[in-house]
Amino acid sequence: MKIHIITIFPESFESYLSSSILWRALEKWLFQCELYKLNDFSDDNFKRVDSKAYGMHGQVISPEPLAKAIDFIFDKVGHKIPVIYMTPSWELLNQKKVEEYYSKLDGEFIIICGHYEWIDQRIIDLYVDYSISIWEYVLTSWELSACVFIDWLVRHIPWVLWNTQSLEEDSFWELLDRKKEYPVYTRPEIFMWQQVPPVLLSGNHKQIENWKKENLR
Questions:
Q1: Per-residue pLDDT for 172 more than 50?
Q2: Which candidate in 24, 82, 151, 155 is catalytic?
Q3: Which CATH superfamily is domain 2-154 in?
């Protein structure tokens, strides 16, 4: 999987991509990530990439630098690839939809990170294949939502997680009937007078599996 990210703030991805599971996945070449600073594609003397919106208050990302950035990536790759726009104004993601996106995007694609709420609608009409929302709120910049989406996708790549069974037991996974995961415990067996449920210490796998199903939340 290779992800091209168009953003005004590429530095905002550095700490997230250089730590924990995502960093290990990058080191193993399980996925790749390339960052493109949108301002580099601006013809404005001051490298501005936004302008005042028609008929409303606030600034909107202009179509020219975004189109140049997307076309640059198309030319670099040698063909068109899917384009994703992170936005607050679309169908919300859930675990099932992420699994569907993983199947569709298991290759190479572009993520556009807008600033404030909108980009020019003509970019959406001409270029965007999927508009994705992580929740119903407006962020100052959409790099954070892109990190959430990337984290979701990368977890599904084989060998990213140490134990693939841990993915299958995540909350909202199909094997859990899309419900929240059951309570989990670790050592010590007693903590502040609270004890681990005895069935989990029994070694009886059938009883443990039944307990898990009965305690889905």
A1: no
A2: 155
A3: SPOUT methyltransferase, trefoil knot domain (3.40.1280.10)
- Is 44 a residue of the active site? no
The residue from 99, 117, 151, 169 that is catalytic is 117
| pLDDT tier, 182 (very low <50, low <70, confident <90, very high otherwise) | confident
Examine the residue annotation and report whether 169 is marked as an active-site residue of this protein.
Answer: no
**Which of the following is catalytic: 64, 129, 170, 181?**
170
> What is 164-214's CATH number, 3.40.50.300, 3.40.30.10, 1.10.1270.20, 2.120.10.30?
1.10.1270.20
Q: Is 183 assigned a catalytic role?
A: no
Q: Which residue has the tokens 């954070």?
A: 144
Concatenating the DSSP letter of every residue in 79-141 gives: S---EEEE-SSSPBP-HHHHHHHHHHSSSEEEEEE-BSS-B-HHHHHHT-SEEEBSSSS--SB
Q: In the predicted model, is pLDDT for residue 171 greater than 50?
A: no
For the chain, report the end-to-end CA distance as a whole number of angstroms.
Answer: 33
Tens-place pLDDT, residues 118-142: 899 999 999 999 999 988 777 777 8
pLDDT, tens only, 146-160? 999 999 899 888 888
Is residue 187 among the annotated active site residues?
no
